[in-house]
């Protein structure tokens, strides 16, 4: 009973935290419509999108951790960015800021003294300074060229001290900026894959032309081939099937292990393969992402996809090739 009571108390605390932080996000949503935040956001996106250099994201404490994440999200979605620690900036790292960069400072209070040298540097060299703060009338907010003034919200901490709702709001604002920049730059899933070659994301975005078998690895026979030669070709390669192509190298059918079993009683191995192949096999284009190809295989209950370009056979991929990538 005691443990159940403790568990219940924890659940109440968790739900209360979620309720408070969701309320903060609702206030943020309202601020976009009812205050000048929406206009400032539009200006910030335009400034970031038109920057010739990078976005230098800075902040300290919990805001600094959020700034690091925002910079990382910018980088992974096609916007060159760099996190700059205010303390290190004051000891030489201001040199990392170029004349083409835009500075994005995050400070909930707007009174963070550690940002002083960066703010002064922006003023000295006339670098665009964009600030996200809940105190637009603070000295940092007043120094900004564009100030994203966030609504003051209640922290979920029972003492209303630890940054909780405030950092959630900062993080979501950063995501909103990143997504707006994705749309502004026309950043595609292909582009995303270029920045994420590793891990499960990279595997899902890998296209079939990167994993398909080609040339000598690709089993294929011509339409005038015999059942004998098609069986030999299928046995020589590892896919358990062979493509059947016409004189223009267009895919017209496939001969599989299942087709061979169905005609095993036939003694005339000189029969034309066209009489025993499966017409209209499932195909994919070379640019299809691996994750989509795996879905296509599952939907059609096949373990092999033939890859075609303008109907011409260019490759083959087995389900195991995709599973080895880490998709599944």
Polypeptide structure, described:
- By secondary structure, the chain is an alpha/beta fold.
- Helix content is 45%, strand content 16%.
- It has a five-stranded parallel sheet with strand order 2-1-3-4-5, sandwiched between helices. A four-stranded mixed sheet has the order 6-7-8-9.
- α1 (2-34) crosses α2 (37-50).
- The longest helix has 33 residues, at 2-34.
- The chain starts with a helix and ends in a 5-residue tail after the last helix.
- 34% of the residues are buried.
- The mean pLDDT is 87.
Concise structural overview:
The protein has 328 residues and is of the alpha/beta class.
Give the mean pLDDT.
87
Which regions are unreliable across 5 or more consecutive residues at pLDDT < 50?
A: none
Give the strand tally: 12
> Ends: how far apart?
42 Å
Helix content: 40-55%
Outline = elongated
What is the radius of gyration computed over CA atoms, rounded to a whole number of angstroms? 29 Å
Largest sheet: 5 strands, parallel
Beta-strand residue percentage: 15-25%
The SS-based structural class is alpha/beta
> Number of helical segments?
13
Strand order, largest beta sheet? 2-1-3-4-5
Sketch the topology as an H/E string, one letter per element: HHEHEHEHEHEHHHEHEEHEEHEEH
